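Task: sequence in, structure out. Protein: Lumican.
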Amino acid sequence: MLPLRLPLLFLLVSVALCQYDDYDYQPASRHGPSGPNCHQECDCPYNFPTAMYCDSRKLKFVPVVPSGIKYLYLQNNLIEEIKAGVFDNVTDTLRWLILDNNQITNAKIEKGTIDKLSALEKLFFSNNNLTEPVIPPSKSLDELKIMHNQLSKFPSGLLSDKENLTSVNVQYNQLTSDVIGGAFKGPKKMLSLDVSHNKLTKLPAGVPGSLEILYADHNEIESVGAGYLGKLPLLQSLRISHNKLVDSGIPAGVFNVTSLVELDLSFNQLKSIPEINENLEQLYLQANEIEKFDLTSLCKYVSITSFSHLKHLRLDANMVTHSSMPPDSSNCLRVASDIIFE
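Result:
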């Protein structure tokens, strides 16, 4: 994907990695002995004195964080609550807070904790028991991950002042389209949004025009609104696989936008190939009910300079075969290196 800009390449790689490899974590033992400015339950390496490693220690509480700590690792514990006062020494200096793989509920997060963190840049809260997001007041927040929780609420306006937020991942929750109706309107620099594995019946409304990556796999989406992608002029990767898309829910030309590089509509109920733009490079349509190879969906016009830039096209697990391709397909798909029917 040479045309992809570097920010998108970085995001595509990062969202593909295991969620627990997203932060720069190394076991404390690799950093050498712990410094004196540290809680007794944790390690604060001399060669990385602004980090406090409290991960994988069967902790049931968040320890009091000493002043000077900017990076706090609390993943893989048994933490159930966050008591007031634990962050009092770092309210304006803590940048990273990693709380993945604990047992925290909204009711056990006391006031005067996360709601006081005014400099936080990354908040990772995956694999807990939250029913609604916990958002710090920090305007520096650039990455928010609350995957594998029980989110069923997302009050409008929670992210309205997050002017530096670039990535939000809330996959594997209980969110509905009504619940997230105004959830993502605020951030004007957001590049990546993942709402996969929820209960959406349509793509999220009101997302920022800055978005480059939108993942909504494994929901209950039946249609895409006409003009939806027209409001996202920078969108390059769209995944709506494992939904309930049907032909009648795909308005003519809805995917014919010049910015898209990757489009995944696999595992739906489509009977025809939707119209795409010639700039698209990756098209995934496997496991639908496609009955005909309509070349005009891929190439409106074919000439020396006008042709499809598709490199990868998947049509396996449909009702078309290689013999279904029209004789002049090679002119349209002249740069395709991978067309899969079986």
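The two ends are 24 Å apart (CA to CA).
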